[in-house]
Amino acid sequence: MIHISQIHKEVQRLPEFSIKFVNREGDIITCDKCICTSWFSNGRTMNIKFLNSGEIRKIRRVSIIEFNGQRVVL
C-alpha cells in the first residue's frame, strides 16, 4: 500500500510508472507506462502522458486507486 500523499514524491523520483484511476463515468482506467507532465493546485490534479498512445489526461489525485501495483490509501 502507498499513501496518496506519497505519490507526488514517487512521481518525481521515477522516470515512468503504472497507474489505475477512476474516471468521471466510474470506469477504471489502466496505464502500464506513463509519465507525469505536471502537477496543479497544490497537487490536487496531475497531467499524465500515456507513453504507448501519447495521450495526455488530467486526473484528480483522489481518483488514483493503484500506483505501480500498490493499492493507494487516503
What does this 3D model show about the protein?
The protein has 74 residues and is mostly beta strands. Helices cover 9% and strands 54% of the residues. It has a seven-stranded mixed sheet. The chain is globular. The N and C termini lie close together (10 Å). The model has no long low-confidence stretch (mean pLDDT 91).
User: How far apart, in Å, are the first and last alpha carbons?
Assistant: 10 Å
Q: Given the structure, what is the number of helices?
A: 1
Largest sheet: 7 strands, mixed
Strand order of the largest sheet: 1-7-6-2-3-4-5
Overall pLDDT: 91
What is the H/E order? EHEEEEEE
Q: Which range best describes the helical content: under 10%, 10-25%, 25-40%, 40-55%, 55-70% or over 70%?
A: under 10%
E-strand count: 7
Poorly predicted ranges (pLDDT <50, ≥5 residues)? none
If you compute it from the alpha carbons, what radius of gyration comes out, rounded to the nearest whole angstrom? 11 Å
- SS strand fraction: over 45%
Shape: globular
